[in-house]
Input
Amino acid sequence: MANLVKFTIDGRELEAAPGTLVIDAAKRAGIEIPAFCYYEGLSLQGACRMCMVEVERMPKLQTACTLPVAEGMVVRTDTPQVAQARKGTLEFLLTNHPLDCPVCDKGGECELQDMVFRYGAGESRFTEIKHHVDEKQWSPVVYFDAPRCILCYRCVRVCDEGMGVGALGVVNRGVVAEIAPNHGDHLECDECGMCIDICPVGALTSGAYRYKTRPWEMEHVGTICTHCSNGCRTTLGVRNNQIIRGNNRDSSGINGEFLCIKGRYAFDFYDHPDRLQAPLMKVNGKLEPVSWSQALAAVARKFSDVKARGGNFGVIGSNRTTNEENFYLQKFARQVLGTNNLDHRRSGDIVSLLDALHGQQTALATTADLYQAKAVVVISADLALEHPLLSWQIRANWRHHAAHVYVVTTEPVREDKYSVNAARCAPGQELETLQALRPQLVDEPELIFVFGDTIKGEKVRKLVEFGASLGKPVKYVCLVDYANSRGAMDMGLTPELLPGYRASGMPGLTIAEMLAAEDLDVLWVVGANPLAGASLAARGAFVVVQDLFLTETAQAADVVFPACSAYEKNGTVTNVTGEVQRLKRAVQAMGTKPDLEIIGLLAREMGEAAQLGPWSADKVFAEIRATVPGYNVPLPVILTGGAAQTSPVNGRVEAPARPELIRSARNGLFSSGTLGRYSNVLHSVLEGRRQP
Amino acid sequence: MLASYPPGRQRSAVVPMLIFAQDEVGSITPELVQEVAKRCGVQPVQVEECVTYYSMLRKKPLGKYHVQICTNISCLLNGGEELWKRACEQTGLGHKQVSADGMVSLEEVECIGACSWAPALQVNYDFEHLVTPERLDEILAACRKGDYVEKAK
Amino acid sequence: MFASHPPLFSNPPHPREVIMLSKRFRLPNSASIDTFLAHGGYRSFRKALEMTADEIIAEVKTSNLRGRGGAGFPTGLKMGFVPRNSPKPKYIVVNADESEPGTCKDRLLMEYDPHSLLEGMLIAARAIDAKKGYIYIRGEYRYLIHILDRAIEEAYRHGYLGRNILGTGMDFDAYTHSGAGAYECGEESALLESLEGKRGVPRIKPPFPAQVGAFQCPTMLSNVETFCSIPYIVEMGGKAYADLGVEKAGGTKLTCLTGHLNKPGVYELPLGFPVDQLIHDVGGGIPGGRKLKAFIPGGSSCPVLTAKECEGLTMDYDAMAKRGTMLGSGGVVVMDESTDMVKVALRIMRFYQHESCGWCIPCREGTTWLRKMLQRFDEGLGRRHEIAMIGELAKNMLGRTFCALGDAAALPTISIVEKFYDEFERKLNAVSAPVPAPGPFPVLNDPPPLGVGR
Output
C-alpha cells in the first residue's frame, strides 16, 4: 500500500490512502458531510451540492464527494460559509418539493427531512407556484412521484451499475427533468425495488408498502430470506404481528443493502388466505380440521404401530426448513423410526465437489470472495435470474476491482456484458468450452468457479482437476436452489449420508424410490411437495405432511400439520456458499407450529423424546455444533446476525455421489418452487405473469 | 454517419441521427426512437433521454415552415418581443403551435447566434436578419402560401 | 450558397479593424479551397509539418493566445496538457456550439473561411498527435454544417485530410457533428457527453478534457476562433501575434457589437481596444444620440457594467477582471438609457432557466425561482424585501453549481440588482397587467413554453 496522505478536517489531523475522497475520510473520522447524490459504491455525480466544504487555498467551496484528500490539505466542514451553503441549497431543493411529509411514506426516514431539520431554514421564502406533475405507477411495485424527486440519480445508478439492468433514465431538461422508466409508461426489469430502497426521499415508493404504516410504528427484525439459496439478510418491518415490508437498509448481512424481488416483497405468502391454520385429518376420505392433540396422537400411534411391525417408512425433508429441523428430522428417522429411507430434493452436486476437494481447506468460496476475487468463471448458470446476490457481488467486483469475469453458458446471460470472455457452449459441452478459455485463465492470479446443476458427478471431478491444473488458488461455488438446500445436505437428509457427509453405511430409499415402493407403509413429508407431478405407488401408505399450504402432497395426506414459515421461527440456515446464518422470528401465524416443534411433539407422543433431546432451536444447534464436522462455527458471529462459513469435510466422502438425482428447479426471479405460487407479488408483476 | 466515430462509439451518432431523421420525418416518432436505438446500439430509454433533452428535437410535428423568433437579449433590445407578438397576432398561433393547414408554426427561441443583426429569426434553418415588421409579414405570407425559398436545408 | 442572408461582415472593413482572421472574408467564393489556397491557405500547416510538436506548442504559448470561447484559458497551456505519449488515441474537438447570447462571431469564420478552421485543427493535430477531429456545431447552424462538409470534402480531395497527408505519413480525419439545441453543450465537458450521444450534462472535473476528453481519451477542445487563430501564429510567429494584443493576451478578436448601436456587426479588433471607441466609433454610436446605460462585454453571462464603469475601459481579459466582469466570448451588448433593466434581468434569467440542464440543485431550482420572481417584478408584482432577495438567491447559486452555467446566471443578475436597484424599486407598484388569480397548482406535463407565465 502506498504511503498514507496526511490532512486535516475540522482541525483534526487524519490519514488516509491516496485517492480517498474527503467525504469518506470525514465519515471515517466521525465527521458528517451531508450528501444526497453521493453513494458509496456507485459512480460520482457531484449533483446535489450538499457536501460543499471549505478547503484552504481554494477560493471556492469544493464538493467533498469529488475531492480526493491531498497531503497537507486543510478542510473545514463547520464554518458559517459551509452552513450557509447547505442552507441555501436546501432552500432551493424545497422550492419544488411538495411538503407533503404528513402523507409521504418516507416521512420519518427521509434523508431530505433529516437534512432540512439539521441544516435547513425554519421557514421558506418561496412564494411562487410549484411545478407539479402527477404521480405515476410504473409497475405493481414501483410508484414514482416526480415532484418529490430531488434528482440525485441514485436510482438510475443502482439500476444500471448495481443491477446491470439500466431500466431507468432521465428525461426532459432543467426543472422539469425527471426519472423515466425503460418502456415509456412502465418498467420492465428485475422488479428488485433497489431504486425504491435507495431513494433518499419519497419519490419512488413501493406498491407493497405505501400508505400502510409510518416507519416508526414498525419493529425491525433481521432474518434470512427463505427463497433462493443466496441467503440474503432481510430486515422485516413488523407491526401488529404483520410483516409490512422487507428491506436491508441497515446493510447487515452478506448482501449489504441488496435484495431481489423475492427478498423484498415475496414474504407475502405468509398471510396468504390459503395458509393452513389447523391440523387436518382425513375423515371419510376428506381432510377435516382437528385439534393438535388428535392429529399428533393419530400420527404417533401410526408411527409406533408401523415401527413395531417392522414396516417401511419413507421420510422426505425440505430445502427450506432449518438446520435444526433437518438435523432433528434425520435423527428421528434414523434413531426412532430406524430407517435410512430419508431424502430431500437435491439441486447441486456438493457431494462430488467436497470429495474432489478433499485435503483442501479453503477451496469453497464465500459470498464475500465473489466480490474480492481477481477472476470469476460462471459455468452453466444464469446468475442474474437464479442467484441474484451472487450476480450482484460479481458485478460489484467488476465495477470496483475490475475483476475478470468469464462465462460458459448455453444461452446469453447478464454477465456477458462485463465479461472478458463470454463463451457459448452446446448443452453438455461446458468443460470442453472451458478448456478453450485455458490460455486466458492461466494468466489469472486467482479464480472462483461458479457452476450450476449440469456440472455434476464426474464433471465436477474434471472441473476440479482443471482448476488444479491452472496452478493458481482456485475456489468453487456449487449452486443449489433454496434457502437451506446446502444445509439439508450438510444435515444428512439423504439415505447414504449422515450429518457432516459421513456414510450412513446402509443406504435407504431415495425420493423416487420411496414414491415407487409399493410396500411403503408411511410417507412423512416435511416441507416438500414430492407429489407435484408424481404419484405414490403404495396406495395404502399413511401420508403425513407438514406444510404451510395444501399442496398436491398435502392433499394426498392422511394427516397435515400446519407449519411455520421461515419468518415465524428461529433456527439457522446454510446458504449456497456454506455460510450459516440465523433466522429470527418476526411474526406468529395463528395455529401453526415450527416443524422442529411438530417433530418434537411427535417424539414425545411416541415416548421417544428423551432419546432425541429437547426440541429448542438453540439446544439442537448446540448439538449440531458439537457433533457435525465443520459446523463448529463461532457462536457470537451467528448470534449477532453474521454469517460463518462451514467447512463440512476435509477428506473423502465415503459414499457414492448420486449425480442422477440432481436437478435444479431453475427458479427465475419470479418463481420460488411451490412457495412461489402463494406470493401475490410474484404473480402481480408483468415479468412474473409472462413466465411460462 | 456511424462510421465517423471510433469503433464501439456508435452511440455518438444518436443526436445527429435524430435531428437529421426528424428533418425527414417531421418529428421523433416512437418507431424512430427504436430504430435509432438499434442502429446506435443503445437502449430506447437512452435515446428517449436525448429526445427530451435537446430543445430542437420534438415528438410532435411542427409546421412545414417553422418560424423561430429570437427574443434573447440582443434581439429584445431591437424589437424581438414586438416581432414575436406580431407573429402571434398575424398567425393566431402561440409558442410551438401549428397552423391548421400545417404550413406554419411559431416558436419563441433562445439566442440563435444572429445578435449583430437583431432582431432575427429562422425559418427552419434559414436565417432572416434585421427583420422589420414588414419583412416579418412577407415571410409569414410566403410561408403560408408555401413559397418561402429555403436555402439552408 | 447555403446562406439565405446578406453578408455578415462590413464592407469595406471599418478603418479601426485589424484584418487578420477576417482577411479572406470579403473575397469572392471565399469558402472554397481554391480561394483559400490562392490566399496563403494551408501554408502555415505546411510550415507546421516542418516543426516539431514542441515547437508548435511553444509558439502558441509565446503568442499569448487565450481561448476565444469565453473562459480565456491560455491555449498553449491547454495544448501542453495533452499527454502526447499516452497510448490512447488523441482527438481534436472544435467547439462550434456558439450560443452565448450576444455572440455571433464563429458563424463568420465557418461561413467565409472554413478551411482556416481545418488548417488550425490540422496544426493542433500535428502538435498533439491526433488522428481524428470533430467539429461540434449547434443544430441551428445547419447551413454551416453544409459549408464545412463541403470544405472537408475539398480538403480530402486536395490531400489535406485523410491518410498520409501531403506525403508526410500524417493521418487526420475531420467530421462535423450536429448538436440539437442545448446551450449547455457549449460547456466543454457537456459538449463531450453530447458528442458521445448522451444528454449534454457536464462531467466532473478534473480530469479535464486534455487528459480525459472525447471517448475518454486525451483531447484538445477549443473554440472555432481559437483554432482559426493558430495558423496565423504559426505563420507570423508567436511573438508577432502576441504583439498585436496586450500583455498576457495576444492577437485580435472578433467582436460582436450588438444592442443599441447604429452600426452593429462583427469586427476584428485587437485585444485592448478601448470600449468608448468601440461604441462610438466602430459601432457608430447609440441611435438617437441616447446615453449609454449598461454594457455587457462578452455575452450575457458577464456581470453588467454601468456607463460610469465603462470609462477608460479596454477590451481585454485583465482590464475586465479589474472591473469585476469578464471579456467572455466577445459578444458586446450595448444598452441605452431607454432600457428596462428589470426586463433585461428577466430575459437573461429566462434564458439560463430554459437552458439549465437540471443536473445540479442550485442551478436547476435557483434559475427557476429567480425567473419566476423576476417575472413578477417585470409585471409590477414584486415586493420590496424581495429586491435584496434576488441578489441573495443568486449568490446562493454563485460558486455552488456543478458547472459555470449557475455562475453565468447569477453574475449578471447580482450586478443588475446591485447597480440598478432603483429600477426594481420603481417597478414595485407599476402593475401593468391584471393580477392573475392564484389558481390550483397547474399540471405541467411538458416542459413549460417559453412564453408568458412560465
